Amino acid sequence: MTIPRVLLTGFPPFSNHPNNVSEEILREISISGIDDLQIVPTLLSVDEPGSREVSSEISRGVGYSAILHLGYSPDSTMIHLERFARNRYSMTVPDNSGRQIKSGLIVEDAPLILETIAPTSLINASLGEKEIVSWSEDAGGFVCNETYFRTLLSASKSNVSPPRALFMHLPGSQFVPIEEQIAVVSIVSRCLCFSTQPELLTTGQNHA
Predict the structure, then answer these.
(1) C-alpha angle with apex 178: 89 to 174, nearest 5 degrees?
(2) pLDDT band at residue 161 under the 50/70/90 scheme
(3) Quick one: pLDDT at residue 129?
(4) How does pLDDT run across 58-77, given as a tens digit for each residue?
(5) Pairing relationship of beta strands 79-82 and 38-43 according to DSSP bridges
(6) What are phi and psi of 9, to 5 degrees?
(7) Degrees, nearest 5: CA angle 19-25-31
């Protein structure tokens, strides 16, 4: 059986935040891995080029079984799985290039909203009663949402089987310990890849 290839992305610190939990988790998983998956860790820049990087790979035909974007949400106390990406800018702070677009479309002549094709029911069942995770319907108006929208748009236009893509907003480690966040990232990554083979979700999970 071919090992699923998962693009796992995170971001460096932005605005006045000294660190970014998504970068830390990306670093940890790049070392420990996730059993039965080939993880491709990628740190995206917090600016327009960073928001385009993954969508450009999809457009060029770079193949992944799944894409899981990780981002830091300073105002969150739990993990949020983003169901939708919206075609809008609403930046309350500048990105790392100094760009701050307060309104307008991300992509002209594109849908106003896109929904992930991630297997939500399987993810819910696999996470069980974890009270540290919930689904969100608004990924915000910063580079996280911009990246997610560009990714979902490119995937929707792909001439091959599109990768399942999902964005996960993470809280600070003072609210949810890093080990627990890594466990959730591992479970969700496997769900994105093995949704047609649920028995594989119970084998050899590596939570670092």
Answers:
(1) 75
(2) confident
(3) 81
(4) 999 888 999 999 999 999 99
(5) unpaired
(6) -120, 155
(7) 125
Is-contact 142 92, C-beta < 8 A? yes
What distances in angstroms separate CA 159 from CA 51, 59, 60, 63, one per listed residue? 21, 9, 11, 11
Two tokens, residue 146: 């911009």
Tokens of 31: 């070392």
Identify the CA nearest to 87 among candidates 148, 164, 13: 148
Domain map of the chain by residue range?
A: 5-202
Locate the DSSP E strands across the chain: 5-10, 38-43, 66-72, 79-82, 84-86, 113-115, 133-136, 164-170
Range 5-202: architecture per CATH: 3-Layer(aba) Sandwich (3.40)
Residue 19, both tokens: 């660190």
Phi, psi of 141 (to 5 degrees): -125, 20
Task: Tell me, letter by letter, the H, E, C secondary structure of 84-127.
Answer: EEECCCCCCCCCCCCCCCCCCCCCCCCCCEEECCCCHHHHHHHH
Instruction: Read off the pLDDT of residues 97-110 as tens digits, 9 standing for 90 and up.
Output: 999 999 999 999 99
The alpha carbons of the chain give a radius of gyration, in whole angstroms, of 16
